[in-house]
Amino acid sequence: MTSAPGKPARIVSLLPSATEILFAVGAGERVVAVTHECDHPAEAAALPKVTANALPTEGASAASIDRHIRAALHEGSSIYALDAALLHELAPQLIVTQELCEVCAVSYRTVQQAVRSLPGHVPVLSLEPGSLDDIAATVLAVGSAAGCEPRAGQVVEAMRERIGVVTAMAPPEPRPVMLCLEWTDPLMAGGHWVPEMVALAGGVDPLGRRGVPSREVSWNEVLAAQPDVVVLMPCGFGLQRTLSLARDVTERPGFNQLPAAASGRVVAVDGSSYFNRPGPRIVTGLEILAAAVRATAGSPLPAGAAWALTPAAV
After folding, report:
1. What DSSP designation does 226 have?
2. Are residues 117 and 18 in the same domain?
3. pLDDT of 141-173, one tens digit each?
4. Which of 262, 273, 280, 289 could link 201 by a cystine bridge, Cβ 3.0 to 4.6 Å?
5. Do residues 105 and 77 share a domain?
6. Whole-structure pTM value
7. What is the pLDDT of residues 202-240, one digit of tens each?
8. Cα distance between residue 222 and residue 42, in whole Å
9. What are the residues facing 47 on neighbouring strands?
10. What is the maximal distance between C-alpha atoms in the chain?
């Protein structure tokens, strides 16, 4: 594989959002390996995988997955396995990863250890976004590292235009209280860019904390918040898996007394595609929230979202 001078010819992405960004800015043809969770775009899913899940999560409940993750982190074990031998064989000239969350990708410490065994100096770009502006900045940073600055600028401009369309909408009056849950058992209120997205979409997020990781919240906090809309966006899960977990929330004592239950405004979304990954598709997540803030139960929702309460329960 050849590349223009100054452009890394062989790129390894250790983060699904980084993979999406690399393809969006025009560096996809130079990506030689990705993670086992990289499923977008379709071309990325066909590339060699240098990571694997080290925990049993297939078909497991949210509570079971949480227990396994907490135990692994407590013991100092990695949640993901890195194929250092394959990484060495691929001889990357750029590695894109993150330090933001050890639950989201292979640990940065593991990556550093593997890179030390590679021949020559291999640059490692670590992405640490905490807001929508930070996500735009990471697109530009990846574009710069990959030698695709002009295309990266175009991607960011398109993102900002779409964000502007949402922010130009008149917010509902009064603004609905919106609870975004990044995990259902235990309950985790969305953090980082999610509270910002709620505000831009026209809602009020009483439990999320901007710019910091999602945090565990008690059911009493949820009851006290009296949300008008509940959005389920479990980290790493698509829409159908999220729908299957809705009972973790809707069957808790006192749920039926919440405004969101009375109105039927409980929404499941494809968190993996549009909320958990800080890449260009985060803007689609913002558009989904803007629709959910204004929707009545049973009315059409954008692709990637669905009502989580059955008609009989509404």
Report:
1. -
2. yes
3. 999 999 999 999 999 999 999 999 999 999 999
4. 289
5. yes
6. 0.91
7. 999 999 999 999 999 999 999 999 999 999 999 989 999
8. 38
9. none
10. 63
Separation of alpha carbons 275 and 272, rounded Å? 6
| Backbone conformation region of residue 162, classed left if phi is above 0, alpha if psi is from -120 to 50, else beta | alpha
CA distances from 272 to 63, 183, 186, 214 (A): 18, 12, 18, 15
Could you tell me if 214 and 306 are in contact, meaning their C-beta atoms sit under 8 angstroms apart?
no
Instruction: List the structure tokens of 180.
Output: 């975004």
Which tokens sit at 5? Answer: 């001078």
Provide long-range contacts, Cβ within 8 A and 24+ apart, for 135-140.
135/159, 135/193, 135/278, 135/279, 135/282, 136/160, 138/17, 138/21, 138/278, 139/21, 139/24, 139/25, 139/279, 139/280
215 phi, psi to nearest 5 deg? -130, 150
Locate 184 and state its tokens: 């259902």
Going by C-alpha positions, the residue among 200, 201, 180 that lies closest to residue 191 is 180
Phi, then psi, of 115 in degrees rounded to 5: -65, -35
Residue 291 and residue 266 share a domain:
yes
Q: Which domain holds residue 199?
A: 172-309
Which residue matches tokens 């982190």? 73
Concatenating the DSSP letter of every residue in 163-183 gives HHHHHTSPPPSSPPBEEEEEE
